[in-house]
Amino acid sequence: MSRIVFVSGIDTEIGKTVVTGWLAQQWAAQGEEVITQKLVQTGCVGASDDILLHRRIMGTGLFDEDRDGTTMPALFAYPASPHLAARLEQRTLDLSAIESATARLCERYETVLIEGAGGLMVPLTEQLLTIDYVAQKGWPVLLVTSGRLGSINHTLLSLEAIAARGIALHGVAWNSRDDSSDEVIAADSRGFIRDWVMKRFPDAVWYDVPRIDLG
């Protein structure tokens, strides 16, 4: 049975895409058959910018599933949350198409890393938040955070929301690329968050993500 891990973050622009590509590369190097999927991509036309970055980091080139759209089943041009981007294009987010695409990937790969759009509370539709969609599916979450100022608050709130919905926490990924320029704040934030996670989520994995040169 395939494993799905949902990658979310404490905010937008926190490094989910880099972490997703890096982790896929790491697991593939360990012999896993792994692919990534973008749940919903806004702000682009024709192809998912995030999937393209995943492949650069993985060093694989495009998969057949990228070319036929399976890894990027919902694209919207306006750079906004999915519910707003869909409304502006007078379209409906087709959740059944997304689910079918995910199912096809699970038939072909051992592991599917699904990157969300923005943070956990981002609305997919007017009535459905990302976190509630994930809870319905029963997917474990990998939460991406960093040492930016304010990350302790945002991380702990995200963890509270995950726990409140009974979602399993696969792990926390520390994206040092996004650390505060104040090294004291960054170091203290990492120590505080890591201790908090290890005490309250003892089965969670902690990932220190290296600073990847994206060219």
Brief account:
The chain is α/β, with parallel strands linked by helices. It has one domain: 3-Layer(aba) Sandwich (Rossmann fold). It is built from 8 helices and 8 strands, in the order E-H-E-E-H-H-E-H-H-E-H-E-H-E-H-E.
Describe the structure.
This protein has a single domain, classed as Rossmann fold. The chain starts with a strand and ends in a 6-residue tail after the last strand. It is of the alpha/beta class. It contains eight helices and eight strands; from the N terminus they run βαββααβααβαβαβαβ. α8 (about 185-200) links the parallel β7 (about 170-175) and β8. It has helices at about 15-30, 50-60, 65, 80-90, 95-110, 130-135, 150-165, 185-200, and strands at about 5-10, 35-40, 40, 75, 110-120, 140-145, 170-175, 205-210. α1 (about 15-30) packs parallel to α2 and α7 (about 150-165) runs parallel beside α8. A six-stranded parallel beta sheet has the order 2-5-1-6-7-8, sandwiched between helices. It has a two-stranded parallel sheet with strand order 3-4. It is globular and about 45 Å long.
What's the helix-strand series? EHEEHHEHHEHEHEHE
- Oligomeric composition of the shown chains: single chain
Task: Compute the average pLDDT.
Answer: 95
Can you tell me the CATH superfamily? Answer: P-loop containing nucleotide triphosphate hydrolases
The proportion of residues forming helix, as a percent range, comes to: 40-55%
Adjacency order of strands in the biggest sheet: 2-5-1-6-7-8
CATH architecture: 3-Layer(aba) Sandwich
Question: What's the CATH topology label?
Answer: Rossmann fold
Query: How many helical stretches?
Result: 8
**Could you name the ranges where pLDDT drops below 50 across 5 or more consecutive residues?**
none
Overall CATH class: Alpha Beta
Largest sheet: 6 strands, parallel
* Distance between the amino and carboxyl termini: 37 Å
Question: Which term fits the overall shape?
Answer: globular
- Strand % is 15-25%
Q: Structural class given helices, strands, pairing? A: alpha/beta
